UniProtKB/TrEMBL annotation:
It comes from the Bacteria. It is found in: Cell membrane; Membrane. This is ABC transporter permease/substrate binding protein. Pfam families: BPD_transp_1 (PF00528), OpuAC (PF04069). It comes from Streptomyces ramulosus. It is a multi-pass membrane protein. The chain crosses the membrane at residues 21-43, 49-78, 90-114, 134-159, 201-225, 245-262, 301-321. Its main location: membrane. Residues 87-266 form the ABC transmembrane type-1 domain. In the N-terminal section; belongs to the binding-protein-dependent transport system permease family. Belongs to the binding-protein-dependent transport system permease family. Keywords: Cell membrane, Membrane, Transmembrane, Transmembrane helix, Transport. The keyword Chaperone does not apply.
Length: 869
């Protein structure tokens, strides 16, 4: 029978959706991330025992005093075993998934109960959703939504929805038909029948479905830990991949406590909200006799007061007891985030946590994620992971590199001369090469113990090595994890039993055990790999300082193995403590690996002074003003910035309220202001030449090249020119000189402001619509869009301007050092465009971060702009 290509069709469908619906997935990712972040912020805010108290009050309100005591003890135990943060992350994920599931599933169940056709369509869909292995949902989830909590949330919603739909449908169908007929006979509207008769009577069944949703969601959240979802799932995955019994027991116990709490609370909630449940509860309490106090539950108002009081206490503790943690050794990163991914192999874990510590000391906020090789490369190609440090190239990870190399950057080799091999204990005297394995499968039980199935070494072993040595039919490669392989190796060596394992060099196992690397005379494993640092595409441009550090990163075998051993001694969950202990034995290594870019700025002669700097909301004005703010702060000044329209700024300069600005367009565009106030001002000097002001149109408007052409195509542009701030010289000159000279008086010139003009340009450009905008050079818009500057054959825009710094007349005397720096300051077009781009990328409100990124990419620029003797 011919093969039905279901897998290929599914793969093609996923590829098509990835290519054509990326905007939808990005929107869903943004919404779900925001929802999760909000809930997590609320739950993670209070101290653990305060939140445990709030959970206990809820349990008291729903189930009574014994449940409250057990709840507090259970969550206190989670805090004691250091799984609190992970538990809160998992609880947040469960709540987000369950809220969305219930909002969708209950209406679907009602619809299915009221329409047999809808029920018939939904039933096979629900069967598919419920019986598909849970892990399968993560594959498209990672491809559509990347790594992190979002694929976990989406997969959880899909996996946990069927019970809620089915139980809602079942509950409503089971309502006595005579009751429904009676309601209809009295003229009750169908909606009121649903709300007043069917839903109240079906509520116990619906609540049972919701309970199942929560339980399935929690089980799926644990599975989602393999996709970088974190939380308890991440702890379980880490314990499995490292065969860590301690971590597995603690994470598993935390899952049990959380699951029991959610199960009991949702079950008890039915008794509070359902009339039938309240009746059953009253009967149960009446039968308790003298033990009633154990089942006494506070009124809703009293429980609410208790929760509010604890919440206020938590808020007060958070406000007054904030601890910013240990200070960074320097602030090169300014709090920017860098995400580090790693496969849970010793060298990857060691170098990842080493770089986590280094980046924290340099003022960054690094995040680490442990992943399988496949999700790691896929996530990095999507941009979810910034850097990984244990890419084995060119052999082990060859397949992933070929697939994703266009979306990755090779930051260089940090360790060379590696090898892949099969190793056996040295007490197996007759085994020296892979040829010797032939015919001895019975000795090894027909197995070679492997590692993670997605590892490149496993693919090479199965696809090349076994075939090269004719071992394919004789041996089976057993997929496991690195930690499982090492545990099996340890167990076999203790019992002096035969074992063959996949291994590699460097690895601490060769120091701990007496092993034989089986020779590979046919070279099937390849010639050996190098360990590479890989960045996502664009990482070097976004974080040039970090990329520069990593390009120069090297460790020798002694350093690497001692770092691995230090981390093993510290134990799982304490990796950074192991790194810090190792760094103490290697003083000065952090400064060597990551030389700080901002720890030794000399103070200026006028340090402490606070100049008032004004700027208009123009890109070059914003960029240069924040650049000088950053430079002055490094020199010990305390500059104050004032964002003003052009007219008020020049007025402020003349009166001395503003000391200086860097965005004066002279001699033409701001001529009127200069002529009006020049007796109170000083022209400090130009820092940028060869500017121009113009009207620009998209280049796809083919027949408009000059201002004369614009007049002829007035209707095509809707009779509008999109302008900027009304007080600017460009707008005044357009209306007074340019428009009359070219017969453009019939055009409406809108005063949208610079940001409004750029937004309108982006909208029109995206739709390929004609648009004419007031623009100037230099401007980053010419890099982002393909635009035509309309020629001005009559020269109505006037001569080219230069951009100059303008100060109040007293500025040179009050700030002589700063004045001297500005007089000698120049910027090239590339420098200005790069600075504007970095600030644009950082986003509004993060201008300082964008400037610092640009400074990091231009070492020595502070000393060049503001030299101190």
């Amino acid at each position: 029978m011919p093969r039905i290509q279901i897998g290929s069709w599914a793969s093609d469908a996923v590829d098509w959706l990835t290519n054509h619906a990326a905007w939808l997935f990005d929107f869903v990712t943004h919404v779900l991330n925001g929802f999760y972040t909000g809930i997590h912020a609320v739950l993670a805010g209070p101290e653990p025992l305060i939140l445990a108290g709030i959970f206990a009050i809820i349990a008291w309100w729903l189930r009574g005093l014994p449940a409250a005591v057990l709840t507090f003890l259970g969550f206190a135990l989670i805090d004691s075993i250091e799984q609190w943060d992970e538990t809160i992350s998992s609880l947040s994920l469960v709540l987000v998934a369950c809220i969305i599931t219930i909002v969708v599933a209950v209406p679907l169940g009602i619809w299915a109960a009221r329409s047999r056709a809808v029920g018939g369509v939904l039933r096979p869909v629900l069967d598919l959703m419920q019986t598909m292995p849970a892990m399968v949902y993560l594959i498209p989830g990672i491809l559509f939504f990347g790594l992190g909590v979002v694929p976990g949330i989406v997969s959880t919603i899909v996996f946990s929805m069927p019970p809620a739909v089915r139980m809602t449908e079942l509950g409503i169908r089971q309502v006595d038909g005579e009751l429904v007929e009676a309601a209809e006979a009295f003229g009750t509207h169908p909606r009121r029948t649903l709300l007043r008769v069917q839903l109240p009577l079906a509520l116990p069944t619906i609540m049972a479905g919701i309970n199942q949703v929560i339980m399935l969601a929690l089980s799926m959240v644990v599975i989602a830990g393999t996709a970088g979802g974190g939380g308890l799932g991440g702890s379980v995955y880490q314990s499995l991949s490292s065969v860590d019994v301690k971590l597995g027991a603690e994470a598993g116990l935390s899952v049990v406590i959380l699951a029991v709490y959610l199960d009991r609370m949702t079950g008890a909630l039915n008794q509070r909200v359902s009339p039938l449940g309240r009746r059953a509860l009253a009967k149960a309490q009446a039968s308790l006799g003298g033990m009633k106090f154990l089942r006494w539950k506070p009124a809703t108002s009293l429980a609410t007061v208790g929760i509010v009081v604890l919440a206020l206490v938590a808020g007060g503790m958070g406000y007054f007891g904030k601890n910013s943690g240990p200070a960074a050794a320097s602030n090169d990163g300014h709090g920017r985030s860098v995400t580090l991914g790693y496969v849970n192999w010793d060298e990857g874990r060691a170098t990842t946590f080493l770089w986590k510590e280094i980046l924290e000391q340099r003022g960054f906020k690094p995040k680490v994620q442990a992943l399988e090789a496949g999700p790691l490369f896929a996530g990095q190609a999507r941009g979810d992971i910034d850097v990984q440090s244990n890419a084995w190239l060119p052999t082990t990870h060859e397949a992933y590199w070929k697939q994703y190399k266009d979306k990755l950057e090779d930051l260089g080799t940090w360790y060379d001369k590696t090898s892949l091999e099969i190793a056996v204990p040295s007490y197996m005297k007759d085994l020296k090469s892979l040829d010797d394995l032939k015919g001895k499968s019975g000795t090894f039980g027909g197995k070679i113990i492997g590692i993670e199935p997605g590892a490149g070494e496993m693919k090479i072993l199965k696809d090349k090595v076994l075939k090269a040595y004719d071992l394919s039919g004789e041996y089976k490669v057993q997929d496991s994890t690195t930690a499982s392989m090492l545990a099996e190796l340890d167990r076999s060596i203790r019992a002096k039993k035969p074992i063959a394992v996949t291994l590699w060099s460097p690895h601490w196992a060769y120091d701990k055990y007496d092993l034989t690397k089986l020779k590979d005379p046919k070279g099937a494993f390849g010639s050996g790999d190098s360990l590479h640092m890989l960045g996502r595409k664009g990482f070097s441009e976004d974080e040039p300082l970090v990329a520069g550090w990593m390009k120069n990163f090297h460790l020798d075998e002694g350093q690497l193995t001692s770092l691995e051993n230090a981390m093993k001694d510290a134990g799982n969950g304490h990796e950074q403590e192991g790194v810090r202990a190792w760094l103490k034995k290697n003083p000065g290594l952090v400064d060597k690996l990551a030389p700080s870019g901002n720890t030794s700025y000399a103070k200026g002669k006028d340090a402490g002074k606070a100049p008032d700097i004004g700027y208009p909301a123009w890109d070059e004005g914003i960029a240069t003003t924040y650049l000088w703010k950053n430079v002055l702060e490094k020199r010990g000044y305390r500059p104050k910035l004032h964002n003003l329209d052009v007219g008020p700024m020049w007025t402020g300069l003349s009166t001395g309220q503003i000391d200086v600005e860097t965005d004066g367009w002279l001699p033409v565009m701001q001529k009127q202001y200069w002529e009006k106030y020049q007796k109170d001002l000083v022209d400090i000097g130009p820092w940028y030449d060869k500017t121009s002001v113009e009207i620009a149109v998209p280049s796809y408007v083919k027949d408009v090249k000059t201002l004369d052409d614009l007049r002829k195509h007035k209707d095509e542009f809707g009779g509008k020119i999109i302008g900027i701030e009304p007080g600017t010289g460009a707008m005044k000159r357009l209306k007074s000189t340019v428009a009359p000279a070219y017969g453009l008086d019939g055009f409406q010139v809108t005063s949208a402001g610079t940001s409004g003009m750029l937004a309108e340009l982006q909208r029109a450009y995206g739709k390929k619509e004609p648009i004419a905008v007031v623009l100037w050079s230099p401007h980053w818009a010419y890099s982002k869009y393909d635009l035509t500057k309309l020629k001005d054959p009559k020269g109505t825009w006037g001569a080219e301007n230069h951009i100059t710094s303008v100060g109040n007349k007293s500025f040179p005397k009050e700030f002589p050092e700063f004045h001297g720096w500005l007089k000698n300051w120049k910027m090239t077009p590339d420098e200005l465009n790069g600075l504007e781009k970095d600030i644009q990328d950082a986003g509004k409100g993060n201008e300082d971060k964008g400037v610092q990124k640009w400074i990091d990419a231009h070492p020595g620029i502070v000393d060049k702009m503001a030299p101190v003797k």
